[in-house]
Amino acid sequence: QVQLVEAGGGLVQAGGSPRLSCSASVRTFSSASMGWFRQAPGKERELVAQITSGGSTNYADSVKGRFAISRDNAEKTMYLQMNSLKPEDTAVYYCAAKPDWTRHWPYWGQGTQVTVSS
Questions:
Q1: How far apart, in whole angstroms, are the C-alpha atoms of residue 32 and residue 51?
Q2: Mean pLDDT of residues grouped by 10 in the chain (118 residues)?
Q3: Secondary element (H or E) of residue 24
Q4: Rounded distance, CA 55 to CA 15, Å?
Q5: Is 95 helix (H, G, I), strand (E, B) or coil?
Q6: Parallel, antiparallel, or unpaired: how do β-strands 91-99 and 32-39 relate?
Q7: Are 115 and 11 in contact (CB under 8 A)?
Q8: Residue 116: beta bridge partners?
């Protein structure tokens, strides 16, 4: 049973720099790709950032240069450092995990709300 638990959301002022974390209870964390998704009201869920087991990363264009994804395999934790937040970053942020070789994300956290006030 894979469990992903997000933390670090809340109300943040525009320009703020919160950090989200995702703790995973999975034996094979070090061999999994991890990702952060977000869903804003009335919008589809979108991939914000992902990191492979080897540490390769990619980001949505809207967050490039502002967000940074990282992982600590020893702690089985993934992070999303968010900088220069904008009101349009307001969304529920979800942690997700998958095997490196698949496109499907089978494992999801329950999400954490990030609200950016202007």
A1: 9
A2: 92 97 90 96 97 97 98 96 97 96 95 96
A3: strand 19-25
A4: 27
A5: strand
A6: antiparallel
A7: yes
A8: 12
Q: How far apart are CA 108 and CA 118, in angstroms?
A: 30
Residue appearing with tokens 């974390």: 21
Please provide the size of the chain in residues.
Answer: 118
Look at phi and psi of residue 10 and say left if phi exceeds 0, alpha if psi is from -120 to 50, else beta.
Answer: left
DSSP label at 39?
Answer: E
Nearest C-alpha neighbor of 32 from the set 67, 63, 77, 64: 77
| DSSP of 71-88 | EETTTTEEEEEE-S--GG
- Cα(53)–Cα(65) distance, rounded to whole angstroms? 22
Instruction: Count Cβ atoms below 10 Å from residue 105 Cβ, excluding itself.
Output: 18
Identify residue 28 by its one-letter amino acid code. Answer: T
Q: Which two tokens stand for residue 4?
A: 């992903």
CB 114 within 8 A of CB 16: no
